[in-house]
TrEMBL record:
UniProt organism field: Celeribacter marinus
Annotated phosphate binding sites: R86, G124, T125, R126
Protein name: Ribonuclease PH
Subunit: Homohexameric ring arranged as a trimer of dimers.
Pfam families the UniProt entry points to: RNase_PH, RNase_PH_C
Coiled coil: none
Length: 238
């Protein structure tokens, strides 16, 4: 039995509320159970120096956790004067995951920065950030298209992410914190809407896993991604 009482292949409740900030070109609040992440997308008419005169745009991301997003207060990284290794790893993951669904030539020489701020954490924050980040990106690109700044839609696919793992010897979908902290195997799966893989992060957290178990986790991830893509599409059409 999972701590939450969910079935092995059952997701946490998902909600994606769009237009939650006044100034950002695209924004949403994604809630995956008790994990809540604010995602905003900012359009800028420039690209990083290494992309200048390339004819291509750039999508990048930043990620952070509020001090009381967890059970005890975390010190702000700005107070420490530098970002931690975990933060840097996650925001790079978000950026390259979102870029996998973008035709950067069609985007043109402009940059979109997706900011993901964890308001409340209960496992799967990076997956929620990628899934919600795509929605914010989609809304920002819609503004470019509506304004006539681009003629071809640069977003070639939804991008979504889900965690799966082996908890108490059973493959489970969408780990919350009690499961994540005790899982023998923990994985994050980032995919396009058609099931093409963007990135897979799998690690043994106390027990190893077989190829057959990996296949079971991939099947769970396929199910979860399809549900997340449906939630993304419902959010942007609302």
């Amino acid at each position: 039995m999972r701590p939450s009482g969910r079935k092995l292949d059952e997701m946490r409740s998902i909600s994606i509320e769009t237009g939650v900030t006044k100034h950002a070109e695209g924004s949403c609040m994604i809630r995956c159970g008790d994990t809540h992440v604010l995602c905003t997308a900012t359009l800028e008419p420039r690209v990083p120096p290494f992309m200048r005169n390339s004819g291509q745009g750039w999508v990048t991301a930043e990620y952070g956790m509020l001090p009381r997003s967890t059970s005890s207060r975390m010190r702000r990284e700005a107070t420490a004067g530098k970002q931690g290794g975990r933060t840097i790893e996650i925001q790079r993951l978000i950026g390259r995951s979102l870029r996998a669904g973008v035709d950067r030539v069609a985007l043109g020489e402009r940059q979109i920065t997706v900011d993901c701020d964890v308001i409340q954490a209960d496992g799967g924050t990076r997956c929620a950030a990628i899934t919600g980040g795509w929605v914010a990106l989609r809304l920002a690109v819609n503004k470019l298209i509506k304004a006539g700044d681009i003629t071809t839609d640069p977003l070639i696919s939804n991008v979504a992410a889900i965690s799966c793992g082996i908890y108490a010897g059973q493959p489970v979908l969408d780990l919350d914190y009690p499961e994540d902290s005790e899982a023998g195997v923990d994985g994050n799966f980032i995919m396009l809407a058609n099931g093409q893989m963007v990135e897979t992060q799998m690690s043994a957290e106390g027990s190893t896993y077989s190829r057959a178990q990996l296949s079971e986790l991939l099947d769970l991830a396929d199910k979860g991604i399809s549900e997340l893509v449906a939630a993304q599409n419902a959010a942007i059409s609302g």
